[in-house]
Amino acid sequence: EDKVVQSPLSLVVHEGDTVTLNCSYEVTNFRSLLWYKQEKKAPTFLFMLTSSGIEKKSGRLSSILDKKELFSILNITATQTGDSAVYLCAPRGSNYKLTFGKGTLLTVNP
Amino acid sequence: EAQVTQNPRYLITVTGKKLTVTCSQNMNHEYMSWYRQDPGLGLRQIYYSMNVEVTDKGDVPEGYKVSRKEKRNFPLILESPSPNQTSLYFCASSLTGTGGLQETQYFGPGTRLLVL
């Protein structure tokens, strides 16, 4: 059975802090790993990672994958209140199925 | 505008009364999927479809049916809803589902279902 564990489950920081969110996984026939941001609505896509060691960046967000150690991290620098959300990690494995972690709830206080 | 639409957005029904939640995408995507999201359990896949007339079970298919007669539509059918199917449902689509470079999965706005 595919497993995804995200940590921490929740995190409270102040604006300007840097955060690191973790995702470890065990999936059969790993193909890629996706990160999503979910506010009070549908998840929105952030990154897709397929190769180890190649950092994806989008503004203050970046992510990297380690296929050998089976984990990924999502970094957010200079956090803002608008970054408050649940961040979801989803590796894609056999039959192209996405398995979602339970998410990390990030709260950024002013 | 490229989007995934779901209807209805909110639904209150009673046990045993058949219902259908529609999902439509206008991006010519081959892959479509249904998820349910519950507190403490996260997003779990119900069914998915790799293409027209090709569907397969996800992690929690019991009590649900799907069909994929056209590329753009992927309705979710609850033949006899029960209270444990009260949940937030998301439809999603992506280009091919094969995990390639264009495999961003787009989500619909969600359907909140309450079964009494």
Q: Which keywords apply here?
A:
heterodimer, A: 110 residues, mainly beta, 5-stranded antiparallel sheet, 5-stranded mixed sheet, globular, B: 116 residues, 7-stranded mixed sheet, 4-stranded antiparallel sheet, 11 strands
Task: Characterize the structure shown.
The complex is a heterodimer of chains A (110) and B (116). With 110 residues, chain A is an all-beta fold. Helix content of chain A is 0%, strand content 55%. Chain A contains no helices and ten strands. In chain A, strand 6 and strand 7 (61-66) form a beta hairpin. Chain A is globular and about 40 Å long. The model of chain A has no long low-confidence stretch (mean pLDDT 92). Chain B has 116 residues and is an all-beta fold. In chain B, 0% of the residues lie in helices and 49% in strands. In chain B, a hairpin with a 2-residue loop joins strand 5 and strand 6 (54-57). Chain B is globular, with a radius of gyration of 13 Å. The mean pLDDT of chain B is 92. The A-B interface holds A 31-32, 34, 41-45, 48, 50, 88, 90, 92, 95-103 and B 31, 33, 35, 40-45, 48, 50, 56, 58-59, 90, 97-99, 101, 103-110.
By secondary-structure content and strand pairing, the structural class of chain B works out as mainly beta
Q: Beta fraction of the residues of chain B?
A: over 45%
Strand arrangement, major sheet of chain A: 1-3-8-7-6
Number of strands of chain B: 11
Shape of chain A: globular
The separation of the N and C termini of chain A measures: 41 Å
Strand content of chain A: over 45%
One letter per element, helices H and strands E, the order of chain A comes to EEEEEEEEEE
